[in-house]
Sequence to fold (290 residues):
Amino acid sequence: MKQKIGIHAFVWVGGWSEEECRQALESSRASGYDLIEIPLLEPAAIDVALTRSLLEKTGLEATCTLALTPETDISSTDEAIVARGERLLHDALAVARDLGASYLGGVIFGALTRYREPLAPAGRLNSMRVLARLAEQAAVNGMQLGLEVVNRYESNFLNTAEQALNLIEEIGAPNLVVHLDTYHMNIEEENFVKPVVACGKRLGYVHVGESHRGYLGTGTVDFPGFFRALRQAGYQGPVTFESFSRAQEIANLSGSLAIWRHTWTDRFDLARQARAFIAAGLEATDTQED
Ligand code: MN
Fold:
């Protein structure tokens, strides 16, 4: 079993200047990770040539994620907002491709925000149309698109794996996959096993995060159950650590994610502990069954 273990760049940095890019990649490598997840909240702000050359230098693989905002919400019923969101997604897809990533995921189906109303049926249709076109373009580049299931305070659209599976079924694109995150599952799902098994081959990416988004193993997430379920589902994709603390403020995101507390201060200690925790968790499933 040789699964890639990844880390989200926001553990290291809050932006992507030359210095931040270098710091994120070198720190990920130094902490033993195989992969870095690069946020494309502002695709135009990414220096593709620099990032690519540092990826090659460090030997890290890259995946890309982003979250839409109320200004770029493709599940809106306002056509101008939907069009702006579609442009952003296509820009992000091009940057991800140019970075050599084969995966673009996140909250790409609607905005990451605290909605006050349920999703409008017309908004759902708008999102489906945009995602169908984006998936078609991604397929041209041999890329997968992941829909990250998030909790009710961050989306009124996809809160459970079942909802994501239904949406993917309706859109019917073979390169659309479910992206599960244990932090969100802890809030919305019955447990950490059933949704993973239900996704089966449709599971394309996972975020490993603790219930309070800090150190792994110090909250309420059932990691042994989750890792066993990954094995049961035949999941071979990356397992990426995601964590947030007030110690790393991220413009336009920390507020939306309600990151108010210092769940950690020493990011190297955090990253090394998480890397070891995930490796041990995956390894334990090697010796248990089969
Ligand atoms: Mn996540």
